[in-house]
Amino acid sequence: MKSILEFSLPDDQREYQIHIQAENMLGMLQNISDYLRSSQKYGNDFKDAADALNKIREQFYWAVNEFDVNLDL
Questions:
Q1: Of 70, 68, 67, 72, nearest in space to 30 by CA
Q2: Above pLDDT 90, what percent of the chain?
Q3: What CA–CA distances, in Å, run from 56 to 22, 36, 63, 69?
Q4: Which end of the chain is less packed: N or C, by CB atoms within 10 Å?
Q5: What is the number of other CB atoms lying within 10 angstroms of the CB of residue 63?
Q6: Which residues, including other chains, have CB under 8 Å from residue 15's CB and lie 6 or more apart?
Q7: Residue 6: left if φ>0, alpha if ψ -120 to 50, beta else—which one?
Q8: DSSP letters of 4-24?
Q9: What is the radius of gyration, based on Cα positions, of the chain?
Q10: What is the DSSP secondary structure assignment for residue 70, as one 8-state letter?
Q11: CA 17/CA 42 separation, integer angstroms
Q12: Rounded to whole angstroms, how far apart are CA atoms 52 and 33?
C-alpha cells in the first residue's frame, strides 16, 4: 500500500512541519510515558507535588531536545 501526502507550500508550511516531525514526536511521547510509568511503578524521589511537576517538566524538555522536536510551530 502506498500513501502520498501533498502540501501546498508555503500555505501549508505548518502542517508540513508537523508531519515531518511526527516520528520524533512519537519517540518523545514514548520517552515521557516510560518516565512516568517508571516513576510510578518503581518509586521516585519526588519530595512533593511541586517537585514532581518540576522533574516531569525537566524530563519533558530533555526529551524535546533529545528527539529534536520543534514546539514553536
A1: 67
A2: 99
A3: 22, 8, 11, 17
A4: N
A5: 20
A6: 7
A7: beta
A8: -----TTTTHHHHHHHHTHHH
A9: 17
A10: -
A11: 37
A12: 15
Segments of the chain with pLDDT less than 50: none
Burial class (CB in 10 A: 0-12, 13-18, 19+), 53: exposed
Q: Given 3-state DSSP classes, what are the helix, strand and coil percentages for the chain, each rounded to the nearest 5?
A: 65, 0, 35
Cell numbers describing residue 37:
510509568
Q: Which amino acid is at 49?
A: A
Upper half-sphere CA count for residue 47 (Cβ side, 13 Å): 3
Residue 73 has what pLDDT? 84
Q: Which residues contact 39 (CB under 8 A, 6 or more apart)?
A: 46
Cell numbers for 35, please give them. 518516565
Length of the chain in terms of residues written: 73
Q: Is the pTM of this model over 0.90?
A: no
Query: What residue spans define the domains of the chain?
Result: 13-66
